[in-house]
Backbone:
């Protein structure tokens, strides 16, 4: 089962300890064959909306930037519980904030 784990931005500034702990966590997940992809996302982005035949493209940043996704990890695990455990470990490393886990369907 594949899961997309996303996290929202926080005001906390990363430090050397955080970088080291995240590097070890990523290395562990990679070695276990669980981590398929990970990365941070630019804060602004581009919003594309459609209404009928009208397509609108708007450059960010947007007022609701705190609701945006700041980073992601795509993992392949045996169960939803395993995805939740990985996300718990991630939150324990990065501290206060919010993450969302969504199952990815398809090939």
Residues:
């Amino acid at each position: 089962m594949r899961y997309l784990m996303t996290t929202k931005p926080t005001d906390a500034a990363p430090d050397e300890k955080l970088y080291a702990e995240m590097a070890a966590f990523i290395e562990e997940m990679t070695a276990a064959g669980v981590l398929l992809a990970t990365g941070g996302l630019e804060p602004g982005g581009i919003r594309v909306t459609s209404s009928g035949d009208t397509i609108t493209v708007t450059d960010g940043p947007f007022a609701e930037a705190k609701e945006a996704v700041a980073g992601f990890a795509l993992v392949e695990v045996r169960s939803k519980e395993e995805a939740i455990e990985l996300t718990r470990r991630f939150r324990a490393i990065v501290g206060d904030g919010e993450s969302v886990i969504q199952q990815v369907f398809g090939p």
